[in-house]
């Protein structure tokens, strides 16, 4: 008798468990039509680089790269998630497969291509040296004896290292590109060396002056992916569509036109 009661209880327990599982499954499949179940597309950036990526006053990400990434996610049916990190850590994050793509005004250099894949290029920018007008730094010869600031991990870091001995300047490296501007304003560096599109924005907003780097022609900016990523092709197809249907032109007009 006792045995039957215990067996009865055990059966009841398992039946309830199964019913609960069934109910659970139903509710999750019921949600599958909503945006919640969209595959997440994880983007990393270094949000210190207006007009490509920065924060607005509410702490949301804004900029050309941010809107381009959102347009790509919408086009391909992904939910976009953005993570901010130091520029110098972006390639590593891709190599460790911690993120799906990087949009960070990143130049598609041959060196980086050894470690990551790039989309087709979406923007070309030269390089510029910017400084305060009173310092009268007008061309590359004037860099002699000066301190030139660059962001760690950028092509400008490499470029500055290569030019420093020849032109007699010192290189100061910082993690965050916006710190370069603070350093310039507080005279801890004499010159900042950066992408022209970004430099021109600071010339306009902060009253700096600048000149083009006569020594290099850098590759264009592109989206970076982990090596062998399967989404490169679909992202390239989205970029091609945006070139054709005017989306790209609209984004460039909105974010890059005033400063080119
Ligand atoms: N275009 C340069 C490079 O690829 C600098 C990019 C810096 N980007 C940034 N979000 N801080 O090295």
TrEMBL record:
Coiled coil: none annotated. PANTHER family: ARGININE-BINDING EXTRACELLULAR PROTEIN ARTP, MEMBRANE-BOUND LYTIC MUREIN TRANSGLYCOSYLASE F. Residues 40-259 form the Solute-binding protein family 3/N-terminal domain. It is found in: Cell envelope. Residues 40-258 form the Ionotropic glutamate receptor C-terminal domain. Pfam families: SBP_bac_3. InterPro entries: Iontro_rcpt_C (IPR001320), SBP_3_CS (IPR018313), Solute-binding_3/MltF_N (IPR001638). Keywords: Lipoprotein, Palmitate, Signal. This is ABC transporter substrate-binding protein. Residues 1-19 form the signal peptide. Belongs to the bacterial solute-binding protein 3 family.
């Amino acid at each position: 008798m006792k045995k039957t009661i215990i067996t009865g209880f055990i059966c009841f327990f398992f039946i309830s468990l199964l019913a609960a599982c069934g109910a659970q499954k139903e509710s999750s499949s019921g949600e599958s039509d909503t945006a919640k179940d969209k595959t997440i597309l994880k983007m990393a950036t270094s949000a210190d680089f207006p007009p490509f990526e920065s924060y607005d006053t509410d702490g949301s990400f804004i900029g050309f790269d941010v809107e381009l990434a959102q347009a790509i996610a919408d086009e391909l049916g992904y939910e976009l998630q953005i993570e901010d990190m130091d520029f110098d850590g972006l390639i590593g994050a891709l190599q460790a497969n911690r993120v799906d793509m990087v949009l960070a005004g990143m130049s598609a250099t041959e060196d980086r291509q050894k470690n990551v894949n790039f989309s087709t290029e979406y923007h070309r920018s030269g390089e510029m040296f910017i400084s305060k007008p009173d310092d009268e730094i007008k061309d590359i010869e004037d860099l002699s004896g000066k301190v030139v600031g660059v962001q760690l991990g950028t092509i400008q870091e490499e470029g500055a290292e290569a030019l420093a001995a020849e032109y007699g300047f010192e290189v100061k490296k910082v993690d965050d590109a916006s710190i370069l501007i603070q350093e310039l304003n507080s005279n801890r560096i004499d010159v900042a060396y950066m992408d022209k599109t970004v430099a021109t924005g600071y010339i306009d907003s902060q009253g700096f002056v600048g000149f083009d780097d006569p020594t290099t022609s850098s590759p264009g900016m592109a989206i970076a992916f982990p090596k062998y990523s399967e989404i490169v092709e679909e992202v390239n197809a989205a970029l091609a569509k945006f070139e054709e249907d005017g989306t790209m032109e609209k984004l460039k007009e909105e974010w890059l036109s005033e400063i080119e």
